[in-house]
Amino acid sequence: MLLTGWGRYPTVTSQVTAPGNVDALTKQLPAYPSGTCLIPRGAGRSYGDSALAEQVVSSRFLDNFIALDADNLRISCGAGVTLAEVLRLCVPQGLFPPVLPGTKHISMGGAIAADIHGKNHHVDGTFCDHVESISLALASGELVHCSRSENSELFHATCGGMGLTGVIVEARLKLAKVSSVSINTESIAAANLKESLTLLNEHNEKKYVVAWVDCLARGAALGRGIIHCGDHSDAGELRHRESSSIGVPFTTPGLLLNRVTMATFNNLYFNRHSWAKGARQQYYDKFFFPLDSIRNWNRLYGSRGFLQYQFVLPDESAESGLTEILGAVSSAGKGSFLAVLKRFGAANENLLSFPRAGLTLTLDFKFEPSLLSLLDELDAMVLAHGGRLYLAKDARMSEAVFKQSYPNWEAFKAIKDRVDPDGLFASMQSNRLGLSGADMGSSTA
Amino acid sequence: MNILIIGANSAIANAVARRYAARHCSLFLVARNEKRLQTQRQDLEVRGAKRVGIHVLNVLEHDKHAEAIKAGHAFFDGADIDIALISHGSLPDQDAAEADFELAKREIDVNGLSVISLLSHLIPPFKAQGRGILAVVTSVAGDRGRQPNFIYGAAKSLVSTYLQGLRGKLLPHGIHVVDIRPGLVDSPMTAQFEKGALWSTPELVAAPIEKAIDGKRHTVYVPGYWRIIMGIVCSIPEVVFKRLKL
Predict the structure, then answer these.
(1) In what side-by-side order are the strands of the sheet with A182-190?
(2) Is residue A159 a part of any domain in this protein?
(3) Is residue A223 part of a domain?
(4) Which residues of A fall within a CB distance of 8 Å from B35?
(5) Nearest-CA distance from A102 to chain B in Å?
(6) Which is it for strands A306-313 and A294-295: parallel, antiparallel or unpaired?
(7) Where are the domains of chain B?
(8) Planar angle of CA A352, A61, A155, nearest 5 degrees
(9) Transmembrane segments in this chain: where (chain B) (predicted)?
(10) How many structural domains are present in chain A?
(11) DSSP code of residue A242
(12) Which chain B residue has its CA at the smallest distance from A2's CA?
């Protein structure tokens, strides 16, 4: 069947299997002929081609809970369980996932494979920093238990390893305790990039901090934005509320997202939050997952899809790098509907994890052929400032850019080659980045 | 609430069981694969089930049906069974089953006869308790014999017809009969299929199934739009229909 990532670019023809249990999976894996390229896939929320290959094994039905230990704040479950399910179960019991990304519709396995981060990376690190252990199905069909003390090399390769070491089938996650479903939030307007960065620094002690940036603003207003801070409230109740959402029933013409509509949106958003600034309380779902209220929002970008571009720059070069990159985006007239700026804390030991100390900016662009050359220019700027790109969002980075910015790639490849000697696990992305075998599958962009 | 589920491993039954687990019901699961039953028990316990019991049964072994139902009663300590849900089934290769009667017979047994056998063991205890709901997952395939799956469809319509009669027969005993007819629902077996707009997921159909059982509906199509689709399919004149490969 035709398959894409969340960005709907690129598209690939894949054979998809969805084993109903771990036994079926471990029987299936050794049966593939050599030369097969297979990649595990969770909820399909990575944006580019990291979960695309000619053979895809979905963790969709490995979605069972194993144990919830409320006293010791631990949850064990299958890789296909989504964070939405974890939240539905845990929140009424005063338990909370320690790291949440921008959508709750991601799988546990995907969260680990991409070593995702949230608005609290500067305080709490990545998702995998709270993963105690995982169970990994290797290409041979063998099940291996990995943690920081057991098969630790494989653990640090698999956390953030984009599914290239094997299929994560189960995981045990540490939870946090909360006493309310509400988040105390505060929104502050920043007139330009310098002010945005200063505000991000000033609010570094807050648990959740994220800045929305207006990419279309030029000149003195370049980098103007709204800083959103939040922390768990002590007051209120622990009742789960089913959040309502509206759907985008079909792919809208990409024309709807153009410079004029985006500038209008950005102005409205900026002004609304400039007026309505100050402290208030929000249901956690609204604070963490504003986009989940529009199902299939990825269809808004038209039939050719879109690319997300997320990079991190080390602190010392962040301001100059961001000014240069935002300037290039703004003068190319390639507005980004969403632009999100966050501060990262220190990097962890996982070999291919994206976050490292500094600032990370996320942009998204409607796909058009002329975009690719702009992104190549941005890559050069990111590299020149000592930064790198997030693999879970990437669909087009070159092998050279990847290898230069992820210095641990060789250590990763050595471990991958040891546990997957025939190179079964490979995605379109890993082949492009030189992490796995030759060219594969037919890609129709 | 005490709920007995036969074919508990099926994607639809699993999704329905999770909804009842969240309501702190007690569940007794009957299915073929013991290891999967154990995984499912853990899952339902974490999701809030009061108690979960399991029993291994191959539905083709009719002589073991009585024992399975008895085990369920024992698990509930003789208390009333509020809901019995029968949801096992298999989707045969139509061409192979047309060519090989033994295969066809087996598929009709799995999807049809075994259900009748299980119901015949469930009816006496339900009559004795004088209340309860018998819910059976059939299929839209039973509404009209279609070229790609008429052996499966025949077995399912056998059950649907049986349920229609049974519903009236059990009315004076306070027992309600629900016929659940799912359309195209994603499962491990259908992962390879290209999914058009008509495909649904076990999670999406579980909610209306729960509602239909609780609300004592008679025949329910899930998702609901299948009632319209099958209404149209059934109204096509035979002279046209026989030429359609849908």
Answers:
(1) A278-283, A182-190, A225-232, A208-213, A339-344, A358-366, A306-313, A388-389
(2) no
(3) yes
(4) 21, 23
(5) 23
(6) unpaired
(7) 2-241
(8) 25
(9) none
(10) 1
(11) P
(12) B194
Paired tokens of B100: 């090989």
Give me the total of CB pairs closer than 8 Å, taking one residue from chain A and one from chain B: 47
- Entry pTM: 0.94
- Cβ contact, residue pair B188, A61, below 8 Å: yes
The Cα of A3 is separated from the nearest Cα of chain B by a number of Å equal to 10
Residue (of A4, A11, A5) closest to A392 by Cα position: A5
Residue of B nearest to A16 (CA): B192
pLDDT value at position A263? 79
> pLDDT digits over A224-281, tens only?
889 999 999 998 788 888 777 777 777 777 777 777 777 787 888 887 777 666 788 9
Q: Which amino acid is present at A427?
A: S
What separation in angstroms does the CA of A29 have from each of A56, A93, B86?
11, 38, 32
Q: Any idea what the CATH number is for the domain that residue A219 is in?
A: 3.30.70.2520
Give the H/E segment covering residue B219. Answer: strand B219-222
Partner B contacted by A18 (CB < 8 A): yes
Task: Report the alpha-carbon angle A244-A246-A252, nearest 5.
Answer: 165
The length of chain A, given as a count of residues? 445
CATH architecture for segment(s) B2-241: 3-Layer(aba) Sandwich (3.40)
Q: Write out the residue range of the structural domain in which residue A383 sits.
A: 182-395
Cα distance from A417 to chain B (closest Cα, Å)?
Answer: 29
Which chain B residues are within 8 Å of A90, Cβ to Cβ?
Answer: none
ipTM: 0.93
Determine, yes or no, domain membership for A89. no
Residue with tokens 């629902």, as numbered in its chain: B185
In which element (H, E) is residue A41 found?
Answer: strand A38-41
3-state helix, strand, coil split of chain A in percent (to 5) is 35, 25, 40
CB B11 within 8 A of CB A61: yes
Tell me if residue A123 falls in helix, strand or coil: helix
Parallel/antiparallel/unpaired status of strands A11-13 and A225-232:
unpaired
Calpha distance A12→A424 (Å, rounded): 18
Query: From the CA of B158, how many Å to the nearest CA of chain A?
Result: 28
Place of tokens 């008679």: B218
Measured between beta carbons, which residues in chain A are less than 8 angstroms from residue B193?
1
Is A344 part of any domain?
A: yes
Q: Cβ B42–A24 below 8 Å, yes or no? A: no
pLDDT per position as a tens digit, B141-156: 999 999 999 999 999 9
In B, what residues contact A, Cβ < 8 A? 9, 11, 33, 35-36, 39-40, 42-43, 46-47, 187-188, 191-195
What stretches in chain A show pLDDT beneath 70? 275-277, 438-445
Count of alpha carbons within 13 Å of A93, Cβ hemisphere only? 22
